[in-house]
Each structure stands twice: as C-alpha cells, then as structure tokens.
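Trying the structure run again after the queue cleared.
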Amino acid sequence: MILLEMISSNLNPIKIYLADLTYNTVAISTEAMPLNIGLITSYCKKKFGKRVDIKLFKYIDKLDQAINNDPPDVLGISNYVWSYNLGYEFFKMQKNKNPTTITVWGGPNFPLDFLSQKKFMQEHPDVDIYVPIEGEVGFANIIERILDANSQKEMLDKIYEKPLELCVSRNIHGELENTFTGYRIKNLDEEIPSPYTTGILDEFFDGKLVPMLQTTRGCPFHCTFCTDGSDEVNLVNRFGPEHVKQDIDYIAEHIPKNTHTLYISDLNFGMLPGDMETCNSLVNIQEKYNYPTKILSTTGKNNKERIIESIKKLNGTMALSMSVQSMDQDVLTNIRRPNISVEKMIGLAPTIKEYDIRTTSEVILGLPGETFEKHIEGLRQLVNAKMDFIVIHNCMLLHGSEMNTPEQRQKWNFTTKFRIVPRDFGKLSNNKNICEIEEIVIGSNALSFDEFLKLRLLGFVLWVTNQGIVYDSMIKFLREQKIDVFEIFYRMAMNSKNASQNIQNIFEKFLDATKNELWNSPEEIKQFIQNEENYEKLITGEIGFNVIQYHHAWILTEFMDDWTNYVIKTSLSLLKEKSLFKKDTQEKFENIANFCKGVSHNPLKSNRMLTNPKFIFNYNISEWMNNTDKNLDDFSLEKPIEISFEYSKEQNKIIQDDLDFNGDTLIGKTKALKAIPFQILWRKPIGFENQKYSEHIRSIEAKRWNTL
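Done. Tokens:
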C-alpha cells in the first residue's frame, strides 16, 4: 500500500487514461477516430516526455476493464451530447474505486454562463476539473501542477491549492473558479505534433473506426444554436499544409481496405485560404490509393466561389454544404446569423450545377421566431434552388450554446421534450444501463406541436425523395413543364391517402415513433431503461432509433418500389392539374417513370445483383440528364431500345462493405447509409452508352458515377 502511494515524478510516470467514447451495443455510434484526445496526448508527451504514461480509449468495454483492473492517477473524458451520461458514469465508477483519482472532463457540452456552470458542477460532484475550450493547454496545466506530488492524495490537494488557468475547478472551500482567459494555441504546427505520424492513433486503424482530419480550429460566426458560436472560438487557426499533407499520407497508407470514408472536422472547410492545398493532397491520395471515396465535412457559409473551386477537385466525393438553417431574415437575425449571405449562396446554383457538384442544405426546425408558413416557404426556396439534399434537423438546446441560456429560453417560450440519442446506450460492469439524452424544441411562441409534427413528416418525405440522382429525371422533366416541384414533396406528406397501403403504414409508424420518442425529463428516461425489458427494446430497435433514418432504411429495404410509384403518381397528378398530360407528353412521362423505377430498384437487399429491371425506352434519358440546354424532345431515339438497370461489382462491394461494417439490420443500415456515397447507392442504366453519344457527354457521365 505504501508503494502504491509513493508516486513520485522521479520514479514512476503519472498514469493517465484519456477517453473519447463511443457506444457499440448494436452498432458503432460515433465512428470517428479519437483525434481529440490524440492531440492532447501528443501535446503532453512533447511537454512532459516520459514523466507521463498516457493510454487512449475509444471502446467502453476496454475502459471499463482498465478502470477495474488497473485504475489511473488521472482520468480524462471528452464530453459531447452523445457521450455525456456515459462519461459521468465512468467518473462515478472511478471515484467509488479511488476517491483521490483526479477526474477531468473536457469538451463543448458545458454551459456558457457562470451561474449555469456552477449548477452543472454541483450536479456532477465526481468531476474535479472541467476544461471548456481547447483541451491541450488546459489539460497540460493540470498535469504540470501535479507532477511533483508524492502521492495520489497530494496530487488532488495540489489541484485545490489555487486556480488552474484555462480550467473550471473548485477551491479548498468547494467554490467554483473559472479561470478561462481566452488563450488558444495559434501556432498549431509548432506546438502540437501530429498524433497520426507519431503513431499515437495506430491502434484505431482497426477496420471499425473512420479517420478524422483537422486542418483548422475555430469559427468566425456566432450562431446561437451552436456550441462553436461563442466569442472565445471566433478566431480561426490553421495547421500548416505540410502537416496536413503528412497526416493525409499517413492515413491513406494505414487505412484498412474496408474503410472508404474520411471525416474532416473543420467547421467551414473550403472557405479559407489553404483549403485548396488540402484538396490537392487529397486528390493525390485518391489517385494513388482509391481512398477516400466519400469525404464528410461541413463546408463554409460564405466565400462559396472559393469552396466550389476546392470541391471541384475532389471528384464528387464531397458535397457542398449550404447550411442556411432558415431562409427567413428575421429568424436569421434571431439566431445571430445575418452575416451569412443566403441570397448569394442560392445564386451560385447555376455554377454548382455546371461542375456537377452535389449540394446539401441544412435547415433547423423550431428556431426562434420561425412559423409553420416560414418553414414551408424556406423549404420551397431551397427545392427551387435545386439543392440535391435537404436535411432538416430538430432544434436542440445544447450546453455551451447561447440558445440554451435562461434568457433565450424565456424570450422564445420554448416547449421542449427529451429523447434518447439513437444507438447511444449500453450496460457497464456495475450493471447500470446508460443512454444519452438530448433536449429538443417541439414548440415555441411561433410554432405549435401539431405544426411541428406536420413539418417532421414533410422533412421525412424530402429526406427520402430528394436524395440526388434517383428522381432527378422526374424533377427535371417537371421543371421543363414549369411545375413547382416542391409540390411533389408537400403533397406526398400532406395527402398520404393517395399512397399505397405500405407507404401509409410507414407514415403512420413514423408519426407514432416521432411522438413516442419524446419524454418529459431525462430522469424518466434513465429510470425507464433500468428495467431490463425496456432496455431490451433499445437493443432490438423498438425504441431509441433515429426516426427519419430508420424509416428511410426500412423503405429502401422493403418498399422502394412503392415509394417510387408514389412519386410517379403525385407527379402525374400535378401534370394533369395543369392540363399538361397530353398525348405527346405521355410517352415521355412513361420513359422517365420507368427510368426512376430502374434506378431506384432494390438497393439494400442481399440479392440486389440478381434483380435487374429492364424497360423499353424511346428517349436517351441519360444523355438528356447531362445536358442543360436541350429538352427531352432532342433526345428521341431512332428506334426503341431495352435498358437494364444494374449495379457494378465496385458499387456492390462498397454497399456490402458498409453493410457488413455496420450490421445488416435496419439499425445498422441507418449507419451504413451515412457512409455509402450517393452515386453508389443507385443502379446504372446499361445500354444507352451504345447509342449515339458525344465524347463530352461521356466524360460528364463518367464523372457523375465514378468515385473509385
């Protein structure tokens, strides 16, 4: 016992565990490699060398086992909305085992105002210190303070001696002290060695996790709903191009063959000087390694011309993010976002289409001051601006965001409920069932709950239908007929009685699931899942899933033909209402309808390679789709031809790899769909290429489908 207490910096290094945890009960929930704690580790090793012994953890069971068998002197855990309850339960476990262990929480999931911080720390007595912004220096300050202690207890005593710079901590009287000075690392290259090239993250190239690249830190915008909207992180700092290139090279050389995706953690990728160099490095890697085939990142809010130039280089592997959140200027003012030019973003649509860049536009349902009508009008504008993907998020009240301060809650009279974060649940060795919980806005002084439900259903229809490629031909044809194509989505959501019984059942189950996932308090959820029968429902997927993604995966697996027929039926009704469905239109419409049926058929069943639909065509739909100057009449074929819709071996491999990676269940498929590139998900028409086909059109078509 005496030997255990004699922890001297001259004899033994301080044992430190750092964890950035993911649930993996039914599927890996947060598949990004733990770059955050890797950066903290590389900084501390540079500063303290062999005086620290740091071990990293991503998986729950490994940290659980290590705490029980070989507990650390210092336990640090990252804190996000998707790991908040899990992290704190580990702190309680560790403190129960050894009350003098120093526990450090860090990350954005922490209140902005001091009174809320005080309440937060009171509610979490097993946390000794919180590092709220960048973790490297704040955590190193803690380690520096305790390095010369001669025992575990003396380490803890030193923490309480005086305030710790860049940390929120308690003094000897238990009073909270916030000593954050606003300091952030500016010369990132000079101060933080790469955790990739130093080998710190090698163990996480395990075929389960996805590499994450960071080239910049900070965000120049002040959005009130975002944890990165505070003034403290307004300045953007950058890693140098050689550092980034070396990281990209290292990742590509070590990536397992079943991993095709890369995350970039930058908040405004492509917007800033230097991003083009990153894209050049990525292109070189793609040519050499056929990796990555999909790049997930948040592109910038302004300087879209620069962003377009960057993304053009990436061969269709990254979408352009048009994160408008709302199209209403009053709402944008309410969330401190008027400095982002929505009009200019939308005005770039022709240029975006010219280079065949896919676009994603994000909208938030439930923002301050946004009514049902404003939300509908905003979606209509985005559809008419030809956004390829429109993603509608629920408004979440996050610790660390201005919108979650008491003043903002009262000002907008938010009605909120709580729900389980999808796939974020598990059981620990102490037999405690844990899940993550988020608070969402379901009403305000501008929006009723009934309106919220209607807009959720509309968002679901948009998610399934406006997914790029699959119904592009129908949408293009309707636009040629001067039809407002937003009406397809609106009518599908609001007039579901016109759908097949299968789709009506899906809609009913979707709305039931949307209502049933809402709880009055986090305590109700925590108590509910302690019952083993209820916890089993999480495992089987009866509760706790992403409602939109789950039902989307269900449709793609079982009812995609029904959904396509519903799109066709709704489109036909719009043409007939406008008296546009005449004899010369009918044949064109039937060709396009069959094209949609062929492209969308059976994407996720295991027999997808064996079910290749065939249709007779009188028009070259593929060539027409890649020509912006001519109507369908100009692509009439000399004689009808039969076209087969098939998956290539390369497509099938990527789809199956991602299904195997995440699990061939509906829950697993919701994860797989995030990784499968949109170009890969849909069938190719085989046969048009044998017709008269210009070299220019051939090159565009090849670019459209090629991601390897």
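Residues 289 and 434 are 40 Å apart (CA to CA). Worth checking whether this holds up in the mutant runs.
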